[in-house]
Every structure is written in C-alpha cells, then in structure tokens.
Amino acid sequence: MAEHARQIIQNKKVWQILDVINWGKDYLEQHSVELPRLVIETLLMSVLKCKRIDLYMQHDKPLTAEELGEVKKGVLECVEGKPLQYIVGEVEFYDTILTVTQDVLIPRPETEILVDAVIRDYSSSSHDGEVSVLDIGTGSGNIAIAIAKKIENCRIFAADISSKAIEVAKKNAIRNKVEKKITFFTADIMQNWKRSSSLQFEYIVSNPPYIPENEVLPLSVRDYEPHQALFAGCDGLLFYERIVTSCSGWLKKGGKLFFEIGIHQHSRVDRLMTDNGYCNVSFINDLQGIARVARGVYQGTKE
C-alpha cells in the first residue's frame, strides 16, 4: 500500500496543492477513511502552515519534495488507523487550540458539554472573590484551560496520574496564555491524596476513564490512545466511585461536582452521588439525547 502511494507520487514531476487534494481525497476514500477531503485539507494545512482558504486561493502552488513527503506520510498513517489529531499534533477544543501527543487522550466534542455546563453554572451563580476549581484527570489540560480562558477570576488545580500528560498540559497552558491561573500536579486518585485542610474548592470537574475493560473499541482508539485514560474496571464506574467517596472532602459545602459520563451510566452515577452527600443531582444530554454530564451539589457526608 505504501509502495503504491509512493509510485503514484513519483510518477508526477510537479505536484500543486489542488493535485494533492484530489489525489489524497481519492486515495483516502478508496481506503474507507471518513471525511477524506477534510483529512487531506487538514494534513496540507498542517504541513504548509496555512488556513483552509489559502489552499484554494493558492491552489496552483507547487509543493516541495519535503512537503509532499510529509503529506504522503500523513495520508498513509491515516489509512493505517492513526488518529488525524495525533498526526498533525493538535486539536481544537472549546475555542482553544491544544497540542496532543499519544501521551494524552484526544479531547472529544462531548467534553465541551462539560466545560459549558461549568461556565454556565458559574455565570448564573454569585461568587465572592476568586473561584477555586479542581480538575481531576486533566490529560491535555483541555478542561482546565478552557475554563481558565472563560472565567476571569479563578484559580485551577489540575491533576493527572501521568507525568507525561502533565508536561503536555503545561505546554498547552502556556500556549493559551493561562499558565499563571493553573497549577498542574501529578497524583493518583486511587491512592490517598495528601492535602492542606484549608484547601477546598467551589468546583470539582472531571472527565475520568469510564469505559468498561471488556468493551470493544475502534482500532484508532484502542491502538493509539492511552489505556489508562480510557478504561475503568469491569463496569466503568471505578473512578466515579473513588472521586465521589474519597475526594468530596476537597469540596466546600455547597460546592459542585461535574462529571462526564458514559452511555447508560447516569442512573448508577445518580445513585452513587445521592448516597454520598450530594443533592440536586441532574444530567445534561448531548445532541443525541444521551446523558453526558452529571452535576451535583455537595451537602456534606451523612451523619
């Protein structure tokens, strides 16, 4: 397959942008890659460091051999199943551009619902001074960074078990000019966290791993994304249970917990939160009507 693609490219002496778009679209389509035109456009924008409109305004611009080689490499990686976001090294999330590597989960559109819910809640509530937020399992830093950009007077602490993920998140915070508002640290929520008794938060937010270990995933997810950011025990509830039962002490009374949840998990998460000191538990659906975000107000542990 790679040799076939190489021969096609070598058979033409000069490749202009439009030539590459047409070839890439056809080649990706033949290999059942979804949205082939968008994929080849994205690869070209990444390699040429330009906007989509530039591809068509300069459609007759020839590519150098090096540029052509980079695009071809990206096309072949797409055909093999590697996610486009990892190939180009970045993703757009809630009006931010983030660097992504295979050390972090690729931010999904569903997680924007979680961020939006927190921001809307903040905007509709009264607050005295700086608002404190704890982001558990920050990954690329997407949730913390998006919140930091939208809520001016906030202080965010963002944790992840992976030191490599934390390094990516720190770079993303700098890239988005919010590094002074976020403290990143490495921690394992399955262990007992040490904390200052005076350190409590108005919000805890988390998009934890929530996929059951036996669930079959697309190869592009299973073979490329970090498993520790995906799987959560036999029923997918492992991290919800840990956060609700052991991390709620980080919340001020009246503080709020926001989770992203998986399909068919809302009833069990509802019961888990209600049984552990949360009231007004509610859920927000995605565009398909699937409950994706859980929200609850912490009233303290039951006596």
TrEMBL record:
PROSITE patterns: N6_MTASE (PS00092). It comes from the Bacteria. Residues 131-212 form the Methyltransferase small domain. Its EC number is 2.1.1.297. It holds the Pfam family MTS. InterPro entries: DNA_methylase_N6_adenine_CS, HemK-like, N5-glutamine_MTase, PrmC_N, RF_methyltr_PrmC, SAM-dependent_MTases_sf, Small_mtfrase_dom. One of its GO terms (molecular function) is nucleic acid binding. Belongs to the protein N5-glutamine methyltransferase family. PrmC subfamily. This is Release factor glutamine methyltransferase. It comes from Candidatus Auribacter fodinae.
